[in-house]
Amino acid sequence: MALADIFPRTEGSAAARPTLTRTYGELPTVQGEGMVALRAWVDEIAALTRPARIHWVDGSRAENDMLLREMVDEGKLIKLNPEWRPGSYLARSHPSDVARTEARTFIASEREEDAGPTNNWAAPEEIRATITPLFAGSMKGRTMYVVPFSMGPVGGPLSHIGVQVTDSAYAVTSIGIMTRVGTDVLREIAGGAHWVKTVHSVGAPLQPGQADVAWPCNDEKYIVHFPDTLEVWSYGSGYGGNAILAKKCFALRIASVIGRDEGWLAEHMLLIRVIDPAGRAYHIAAAFPSACGKTNLAMLRPTIPGWRVETLGDDIAWLRPGEDGRLWAINPEAGFFGVAPGTGQSTNVTAVETLWGNTIFTNVALRPDGDVWWEGLTDEPPAQLTDWEGKPWTPDSGRPAAHPNSRFTVAAAQCPQIADDWDAPQGVPIDAILFGGRRATNVPLVVEATDWTHGVFMGSNISSEKTAAQEGTVGELRRDPFAMLPFCGYNMADYFGHWLKVGQQLRFDRAPRVFQVNWFRKGTDGRFLWPGFGDNSRVIDWIIRRIEGEVGAVESPIGRLPHSADLDLDGIEVSQADLDELFAVDAQLWLREADLTEEFYRTFDGRVPAPLWAELAALRYRLQRA
Q1: Which compartments is it annotated to reside in (predicted)?
Q2: Which SS3 state, helix, strand or coil, does residue 410 take?
């Protein structure tokens, strides 16, 4: 379908092409039928948005350096002291543009029930009529960048391609870190590879002679996903989560739809390789909601002698059944877009070491020596800083120096424990899948699912407790099934069913084992019962020994629990009383939780697959007999 059919032309946009004052760089010389379609699409986007210039991004180092220099000259970036942070920059966003705009994020499927109750749904024709006038002329006075990118190694069997047009150089440089950008991608398109269309505008057109601002954006914001045509349109925000459309928008919301149709999974998961003292390697994928230790596990440094962890990915994994009956996974991203606060020497030294240079920081604080700082980077804050809004700051200021959602964008290859083959096109075979949330009560430190269906049941019920629950009250749960609640591009009940179908494509003896973990259980006195961080490797050790059949398990109503004697606790102090509490299963509390699960399932109007209802009934039966 042509863009003109999707977005009817508005008054004043009758010309087939905008009038361009100049074109940066060279037009791509790649030839092929796919390029004809791409050029036509770019021309139509330009006719709608009417930029002053078009720049086809080639992904070169020289181009990236040019864009960074231009943003520094325009006051949009601050170059950090190269002595402390070479090749690195600080961006300060507008205070109204600091996070994902989930309330303004829509799934525009033809049928509302296909979006489901956990998504904001919009009728495609109605939302197009709403955003068309916003995009009309939205890039006036600006450069429209055309960014061809690959999620996963270019040409890889598990990879997919997209093209983003944007009027934000900040977005271009960030996409260059987070994906594979360049002419190789155009060759794939020219050869007939399918590509996802993504359009982004900060929504701040410039009139002739009008001065730009450091962070252009618009108070009106939209992110609209069209799963039936595989498109994303984002308007009004320059923040990374809303502007790097390759990330959550494509790699999860749109890719989850592609995965549903093609028989694979696009997941909000980290990937790691765990190597035991004997040199045996195992691959683990793990899904955790925000603030549940995901990045720390992705960059885990085990406290058990002889164990090593290699990082494969920290945020997104694409998992596909292989011909060998195993589940294979890649990290489709090329970089890390991480939350800075809480990342420090005592919590995640690997992440800190990754940020030695070549990093774009957003909304962190600036030190007088030209380096950056955020809460949690060091135990003691500097005596004075410039905060994320450019205001003077001291420890007595009574406000955070860095925004709580401040970010770093850095290449994955800089991680000191990145696996040598982290970007292997074929991916890695998955041995175990972990699901986790932040639960102060009820959920044990680790529990093993009895089979794949039980594991899907676990994943569908992942949740974190709100403040009241952290004080010991069960009931106030923030649901985040599979850690995908904000990111699933279609009805989550159908998504649960898709997980069950994927399991049917795996050999029963080669499918990943599924576990639920909880690093955050508290005692009745409010203490954390488990030390966490590097000591979480002790749970991983037990999981791997379960996979190898080296240790047994205790059957419980909710799944298989460790014998406490099988946990390697050498070097840490966890009392037997704390261990008993870490693995306690209170039947009455779990029956109440089963009621909450039923309540949650019923929000999907009968679409939750029958096997999950059967799992819920079986759980209740076991609890009532406990």
Answers
A1: Cytoplasm
A2: strand
Q: Are 622 and 557 in contact (CB under 8 A)?
A: yes
Distances (CA, A) of 244 to 178, 235, 559: 8, 12, 40
Could you tell me the CATH superfamily of domain 3-74+100-263?
A: Phosphoenolpyruvate Carboxykinase, domain 1 (3.40.449.10)
Only one residue has tokens 């799934």, namely 107
> Cα separation of 206 and 208, whole Å?
7
The pTM of the whole model exceeds 0.90: yes
Query: What is the rounded distance in angstroms from the CA atom of residue 538 to the CA atom of residue 305?
Result: 11
Hey, what are 19's tokens? Answer: 């009038």
DSSP β-bridge partners for residue 321: 327
Q: Which residue positions form the known binding site for GTP?
A: 291-296, 407, 438, 533-536
Contact by Cβ (8 Å): 218, 203: yes
Binding-site annotation, residues: 100, 239-241, 248, 268, 290-296, 315, 405-407, 438, 533-536
CATH for 337-410 is 2.170.8.10
Tens digit of each residue's pLDDT (9 = 90 or more) over 369-381 = 999 999 999 999 9
Report pLDDT digits (tens) over 344-403.
998 899 999 999 999 999 999 999 999 999 999 999 999 999 999 999 999 999 999 999
Instruction: Give every residue of the chain whose pLDDT is below 70, as ranges.
Output: 1-27, 466-475
